[in-house]
Amino acid sequence: MAKKQLSADQKRLDLDLWIIGLVTLAVFVCYGAMGKQLTSFIKDDTISVIPRLLLNAAFQFGIAGLGIIIVCIFRKENLTQFGLTKKNGIKAIVWTILCFTPYICYIFISGQFNGYQPFHILIAEDVLASGIPFSLLGMVIIVVVWGFFEGFNYVVISDKINKRYPSKNQWLDWGAITCTIVCLLFHPLSTSFWGIIEIITTSIAIYGMLIVKKKTGNAWGCIVAFCLIWNAL
User: What is the CA radius of gyration of the chain?
Assistant: First the structure.
């Protein structure tokens, strides 16, 4: 039986996904190999906060952002074509928040809620205490890297997977499934009762937000979710 020939678009999408995957994996492996030393440096408050934040942001961006930016530059793709538009923006944000509601409930019911702290990364308090203008510059970096790119990264990857492997079922979304699995693998989870609840609610949140993006054509719901929910609870 003759092997099915891939179209030019399919080959292009395969290459895009390989670039994103390999870049992400390479940075993640580097982080895994040097994790203890990096964490020790980032948490060392005897060192200026800016180099610590830049190092932390570099690895975060390398895992969630660098791959898609390389592909977009290589393909000369405009980020707006992935849903960064005003149309259906409010609808996308509202429906995405609803998708995250089970996860929010899980945080409260499981007793993990310690206050609402948007962008509360490892050294956020040090950044805020660094004084103007460093605190403002630092928060801009945090918003862009941990908010915008972490949410938008899923959007671009999901979009490319769906173009490469389209589904006839409107609710069966291979891009959203893949991104949900990747999200679960990149975050520590357990098989305890609350760990299983976390897996379920996280899956609903990530899969749901990407379905909302596909239905509305607007990516701002995903970005707002990571800015104001995921990195705040």
Answer: 19
* Amino acid code (one letter) for 210: L
* pTM greater than 0.70: yes
Taking the C-alpha atoms of residue 188 and residue 170, their distance in angstroms, rounded to an integer, is 30
Ordered per-residue pLDDT tens for the chain, 233 residues:
445 788 889 899 999 999 999 999 999 999 888 888 888 998 888 888 989 999 999 999 999 999 999 999 999 999 889 999 999 999 999 999 999 999 999 999 999 888 888 877 778 888 888 888 888 998 999 999 999 999 999 999 999 999 999 988 888 899 999 999 999 988 777 889 999 999 999 999 999 999 999 999 999 999 999 989 988 87
Task: Assess whether the previous peptide bond of 118 is cis (omega < 30° from 0).
Answer: no
Q: Which residue carries 């975060």 as its tokens?
A: 60
Query: DSSP assignment of 11-29, as one string?
Result: HHHHHHHHHHHHHHHHHHH
Closest CA to 50 of 145, 140, 127: 127
Secondary structure E strands in the chain: none
- Please state, in angstroms and rounded to a whole number, the distance separating the CA atoms of residues 146 and 215: 25
Specify whether the CB–CB gap between 232 and 116 falls below 8 A.
Answer: yes
